[in-house]
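lol forgot to send this yesterday, sorry. struct tokens for the thing we talked abt
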């Protein structure tokens, strides 16, 4: 969400950068998390702060992070920054979703745009707000000021042509809380699927959903950017785009097999889905009027039934193999292109 807000702020400042460009070239697209120990929330919010700063470097601006020192202090600072003509990014919408604050009046009412609020609307900030930027803990009153009034130091964070794509690690590297990022994470997550972890342990299921959904989003951004005119300077961008598309599709399908919402319409739809699809986890419809065909589990995203059979485990395992091969093929191509570009 911080990247969505950054893109909106840049657009308001007359700087056109696609979300796909910011996410891919900063490296954020490839910070795929996996951990055997961290909970799903930690994995969802533990990102690398450097990617956000890389994105601002690419756009020739910078984001200065601030937070409340004491209750109410951040509101005055945000008001001062917007009064000076700067834009502020902060998690002021529902579910701590980021918005772009354009102004704040003396009563603490802000004009902001954000998710489902494309035209400036009034947001009451007097009660405070809380959320997290990439790699920062959830913090009450945290915000980021987008500045372009001071030139960036040249090469403060070097970003070569392939930029974040070269961030994909083939080995080593870990982030906070033992969350491993990149290709190693994809391989670790696929191994957990092959070992049957999501059918035994609901916590593992939620962690795996975070990993494969993040991979689907990130590689989807990479696919679109590599296929765009912005990536024309890469002589083999179409090949990389094709490989990113394979990774995006395989990750998305595996995520769907681990959380299939096909049966949400009715008990009959659930029954048909369980019979006709290879998925192992199905979201339960509201008001189910028959006995679920498997073990019912409670997850943060809702209730589901796990249909644990040998054939479904085999289907998940085969798809995990496809995801791993797609990830390794992308990384291999990146490595060869990177060697040529250096």
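and heres what i got for the seq, position by position
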């Amino acid at each position: 969400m911080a990247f969505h807000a950054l893109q909106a702020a840049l657009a308001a400042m007359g700087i056109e950068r696609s979300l796909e460009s910011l996410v891919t070239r900063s490296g954020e697209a490839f910070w795929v998390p996996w951990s055997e120990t961290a909970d799903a929330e930690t994995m969802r919010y533990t990102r690398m702060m450097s990617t956000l700063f890389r994105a601002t470097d690419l756009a020739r601006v910078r984001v200065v992070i601030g937070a409340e020192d004491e209750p109410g202090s951040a509101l005055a600072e945000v008001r001062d920054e917007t009064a000076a003509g700067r834009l502020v990014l902060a998690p002021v919408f529902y579910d701590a979703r980021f918005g772009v604050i354009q102004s704040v009046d003396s009563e603490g009412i802000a004009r902001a745009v954000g998710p489902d609020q494309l035209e400036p609307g009034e947001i009451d900030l007097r009660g405070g707000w809380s959320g997290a930027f990439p790699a920062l803990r959830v913090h009450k009153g945290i915000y980021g000021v987008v500045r372009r009034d001071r030139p960036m130091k040249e090469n403060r964070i070097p970003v070569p042509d392939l930029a974040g794509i070269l961030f994909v690690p083939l080995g080593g590297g870990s982030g906070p809380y033992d969350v491993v990022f990149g290709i190693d994470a994809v391989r670790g997550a696929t191994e957990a699927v092959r070992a049957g972890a999501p059918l035994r342990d609901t916590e593992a299921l939620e962690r795996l959903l975070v990993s494969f959904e993040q991979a689907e989003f990130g590689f989807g951004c990479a696919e679109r950017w590599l296929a765009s005119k912005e990536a024309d300077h890469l002589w083999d961008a179409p090949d990389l785009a094709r490989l990113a598309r394979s990774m995006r599709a395989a990750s998305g399908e595996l995520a769907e097999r681990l959380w299939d919402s096909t049966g949400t319409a009715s008990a009959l739809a659930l029954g048909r889905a369980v019979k006709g699809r290879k998925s192992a986890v199905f979201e339960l419809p509201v008001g189910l009027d028959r006995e679920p065909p498997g073990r019912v589990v409670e997850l943060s995203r809702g209730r589901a039934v796990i249909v644990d059979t040998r054939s479904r485990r085999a289907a998940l395992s085969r798809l995990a193999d496809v995801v791993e091969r797609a990830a390794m093929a992308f990384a291999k191509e990146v490595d060869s292109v990177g060697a040529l570009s250096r």
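DSSP finds eleven helices and 13 strands in the chain. anyway ping me if u want another try
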